[in-house]
Amino acid sequence: MCHVSVGHIARNAESKGIPTVAVMARSFGHVASEMKYARAVITRHPMGRPMGPPGDRATHDRVVDAALDLLASATSGTTIVELPEPYRPLNEATQRS
Amino acid sequence: MGESIREFLDSFFYGSRNDLSFKFLKGMSEEEASEFLSLLLTKVGELYDGAPPDDLIDLAYQWQVDAYTPKPGAERKWVHEDGPFTPLSKPLAEMSVGLVTSSGHFTSEDPPGDGRATKSQEEIVKEIDDFLARTPELSEIPTSHPTEELNVRHPGYDTRSSALDPEVALPIRALERAASRGSIGSVSSPAYSFVGAASQLRLRADRDGWVDRWKEAGVEALFLVPV
Asked: What domain count does chain A have?
């Protein structure tokens, strides 16, 4: 339902002259196509973690960069990009490094 | 009489075993669920012998994706033939980018009036039907607010990760780092969060004037995160 709610927002914003880009988890990627989001980045992350695992700044930055690249480069509506990286939560050793 | 398999599966969807990461079990046939649970247990068993958890995560992820992806011919409600598109009016590096998420985060200084501030996540989950008919409430989150002090309540998704690290659904700091790299001009403050389980007709018509509110706040482009 959240993806439909934000779909309404994306459409309203675009209609009033604000360009948008959305980041969403793969489970709801079909909503981007159905609602004709202007620009969407789909991540292969579980529901509730669209930007990536907790504490994983590198992944959050990669997703943000991909979304901003799409925001800047899309020339027509319903431009959808899917990122290939799987969801890999940080373990304690990684977090300490 | 004991619990049936059907009742067991349904209990994960706002029932006695409610688990918002696995509520999709309700929509599965008993045969599908049996296969899923069998594969899941096999992968758990492999962990005993040192297998990395990646395969287990990928398995749960893929079954979640398959469960939510509409089957061919399924009736869909919110489908549009085309959509509005606004090109950028100037380089992104010169734009103020606003952040809007449906994560359900809020600050203690600006608690929402819908009951979330005084109830636990478990209590809010029980109100899902009420939320779906409610007027959505937009929480303002100053970008300077310490993200570790944010609260999150949402009746529709597993909030454990976004409680641990709001950046998984509310990427204020990641956007600020993008601004420091020169990718965008700035991050507009405040960021905004609401509970996406809300009145769809109200959101569709923008009856609460959110877009005009964001424009007045200086937002020139929007970074959206549906959760």
From this structure: 1
